[in-house]
Amino acid sequence: MSVETIPVPVASRFGVTVSNMLLAHDPPADRLLVQLPGKGYTCDYPLLYYLRRAALALGFDVLNVEYGFQAANVELDVENAVYLMDDVWGAARPVLERGYRRVCIAGKSLGTPLAAEMARALQGPDVALILLTPIGGALQGLDDIPTLALIGTNDALYSPEVVAAFDQHPRITWKVYEGLNHSLESGDWRASLAALPDIITACETFMESECA
């Protein structure tokens, strides 16, 4: 089985053409991982890079999305933030036409509410969510969408009360990492590297069970 890199260009409302990347198996896969990065945390940063590697090893195709503000090197603000979902759907729609049976959407920080919005809107393939350091209302209104949420205790957005509120939720599972920050890293590089396999393995296990 080989993997082909296919560009997915999108004319963004941020005034640039964004070169998203689809990694597609030959013969064709029936499962897709969509990666929606953070504001400054691109798909080439450790969490999303190794999540991509894990998904490819499981037989998923992988779509890496870039936002127009990143490509244009402009500041994201309240006014232009409304363009983000246009970037996401602009990349995802032509790829989804390949007819995947299962879709997992992984969002990092800024990408988490976008991932949740996409999952709620997606019709056709079964969908699951991986939310890496979720922000805002990313966990609201997910109903029966299988969801894995991951956060560190040194993340300014970490709230034990929020995590506890989902203890009895049948479809939302939290993984909380002691001492990790909003990048799911610590101040010590060795500790950061040591945590990475557990984080990616948790995501891998989730994809295996919820996107079989």
Write a structural description.
With about 210 residues, the protein is of the alpha/beta class. It has one domain (about 1-210): Rossmann fold, CATH 3.40.50.1820. It is about 35% helix and about 25% strand. Strands 1-2-4-3-5-6-7-8 form an eight-stranded mixed sheet, with helices on both faces. Strand 5, helix 4 (about 110-120) and strand 6 (about 125-130) form a beta-alpha-beta unit.
Topology summary:
Elements: E1 2-11, E2 17-26, E3 31-36, H1 46-57, E4 61-64, H2 68-72, H3 84-96, E5 102-108, H4 111-121, E6 126-132, E7 147-152, H5 160-165, E8 172-177, H6 189-210
Parallel strand pairs: 3-4, 3-5, 5-6, 6-7, 7-8
Antiparallel strand pairs: 1-2, 2-4
Helix pairs in contact: 1-6
